[in-house]
Design brief:
mainly alpha, about 80% helix, about 0% strand, disordered N terminus
């Protein structure tokens, strides 16, 4: 008689579950720690803490669990990351652009493009660093910190250790900015809180860091800083599209064996979600729930990244990433400030009050 038995191969979710539960547990711990005043005041958000916890576990207990958890951890690092970036569009609306005005848009565009190009020049030409690490640090420094590094990784296809180095670099100097920007506010010539808020939002790395620095200065500075920062976040999608197109051309000319660059469809979906969110069709409670889910997905992706990162790889990176990060940080403070002043002066001449 013919064997008509059905295969009992378990559903793939059976393999994913242990790793997903582990990354979710790390994300939950990171979220609880992020609520501690001393950590929140220092600008350490859930994403940053998730990768720190992930790295600590990845270099201690995780190797014993890797056989059972690797498939779920990989799913969190790739699929959940893309989905989290798509849903990140529910945090921004086109109306926010109008609140900042044309000058804020122009400042963000100039700071983003100049910072990324300068990072590439300094890292690749001057410091002779590998291109993937430089591109990731450039994305994180010019747009929105760790979230931009994570969003760029599927396009750049960098190793986990390089992603971790980039995240650590932008987090370090962004956190330093929380302490430094209020000091700059007291030292510069008189300027309105609103204008200094735009400067803060257009030059500081992470959203949480922008909130912390703006809050230390004043309410007007905090509000404008957040709006300017969210505008930079909105530029993430077009940045990824341009970067992906450029990398495809570069790699197609360099070697026939080069790995092709996938088109970042999730970036287009990110734009679509932001446009939909601008219509305000969903109740605020639902949008809030989606944002909480987005936080969880991105924190799980950061935890997965940390779990797959080894201290030996971070040590191998040496001091060059820190040196690059420091030079870019100085540019953001001085060069970004100059761009703010020039654009504000130009707009005042074109549209005098």
């Amino acid at each position: 008689m013919a064997d008509i038995s059905v295969s009992k191969t378990p559903f793939p979710f059976h393999h994913w579950l242990p790793g997903l539960l582990l990354t979710a547990a790390i994300a939950g711990c990171a979220a609880l720690l992020a609520q501690q005043p001393w950590l929140a005041g220092a600008g350490f958000g859930a994403l940053t803490l998730a990768i720190i916890l992930g790295i600590l576990l990845g270099n201690s207990l995780y190797p014993r669990l890797a056989t059972q958890c690797d498939s779920g951890v990989l799913l969190a690092k790739q699929r959940l990351l893309r989905l989290g970036i798509i849903l990140y569009g529910f945090r921004i609306t086109l109306q926010q652009i109008g609140d900042v005005g044309l000058s804020g848009v122009l400042i963000d565009v100039l700071v983003l493009s100049s910072t990324f190009m300068l990072t590439c020049f300094l890292g690749i030409r001057l410091l002779k660093m590998d291109r993937e690490t430089v591109w990731l640090i450039g994305a994180g420094s010019s747009i929105c910190g760790a979230a931009a590094v994570l969003a760029s990784e599927p396009i750049i296809k960098a190793e986990p250790s390089k992603v971790a180095v980039a995240v650590a670099t932008v987090v370090l100097f962004g956190t330093l900015g929380i302490l430094l920007y209020p000091v700059i506010w007291t030292l510069i010539p008189p300027v309105s809180e609103a204008h200094f808020g735009i400067y803060t939002g257009s030059t500081l790395h992470e959203v949480a860091q922008v909130v912390a620095a703006g809050h230390a200065i004043g309410a007007d500075a905090e509000n404008n800083a957040v709006i300017a920062k969210m505008l930079r976040v909105m530029m993430l999608a077009p940045f990824l599209l341009v970067l992906g197109s450029w990398l495809r051309r570069q790699r197609s000319h360099s070697s026939a064996r080069s790995q092709p660059v996938a088109f970042p469809w999730f970036a287009l979906l990110f734009i679509g979600v932001a446009l939909f969110n601008s219509l305000h069709l969903l109740p605020a409670s639902i949008v809030g729930g989606i944002n909480q889910l987005t936080n969880l997905m991105l924190a799980m992706a950061m935890a997965a990244l940390g779990l797959t990162t080894r201290f030996s790889a971070l040590k191998q990176a040496g001091v060059k990433p820190l040196l690059l990060g420091s030079m870019v940080f100085i540019w953001l403070i001085i060069g970004g400030g100059a761009l703010n002043v020039l654009v504000q002066h130009f707009m005042a001449q074109v549209h005098p009050l």
